[in-house]
Amino acid sequence: MTLKLRTGFKAIFVKKNFTTHSFKNNYKIMETKSYTYFSHKLGKEVSVDLNNSHLVALIERHVKEMVKQMETEDLIQYVTDDMYQHLESVTAEEVIDECVNYWDDMFDDVVEEVKANK
Q1: Distance (Å, rounded) from C-alpha 82 to C-alpha 6?
Q2: What distance in Å separates the CA atoms of residue 33 and residue 53, rounded to the nearest whole number?
Q3: Which residues of the chain have pLDDT under 70?
Q4: With CB atoms 3.0 to 4.6 Å apart as the test, which of 42, 79, 90, 118 could cross-link to 94 if both were Cys?
Q5: Cα angle at 17 between 2 and 60, to 5 degrees?
């Protein structure tokens, strides 16, 4: 999958090894299961039964709330860390391909600047 992130005037194309909401596939065959957790509301351990749909809905809501509560700086840091982690996990050829797709006709100039500074 390719994610298209708009930054400034250009679009960044980031290849990801997962599809949007790929976690749904991880829970496809799960039947209803009982989970035990400490309820802060009740002040004791409780059990809850969740099926696949419940778990996926819980994950979606958790992710949306976490992102919504992030400060802009935290969100920027999170995306930056994720992009570094992604680019460190792919081959050098894939890194160059993504850079060419991002910088387009400016890639040659960027390479010259990088080589001049190192």
Answers
A1: 16
A2: 12
A3: 1-30
A4: 90
A5: 85
Residue by residue, DSSP assigns 10-44 as: EEEEEE-SS-TTTHHHHTTT---EEEEEEETTTTE
Phi, psi of 44 (to 5 degrees): -155, 170
Three-state DSSP state, 115: helix
pLDDT given for residue 68 in this prediction = 93
Q: H-helix or E-strand containing 94?
A: helix 92-103
Between the CA of residue 71 and those of 52, 66, 68, 78, 85, what are the distances in Å? 31, 10, 8, 11, 21
What pTM, to 2 d.p., does this model score? Answer: 0.55
Residue 52 confidence (pLDDT): 87
Going by C-alpha positions, the residue among 93, 95, 96, 90 that lies closest to residue 108 is: 96
Residue recorded with tokens 């799960």: 30
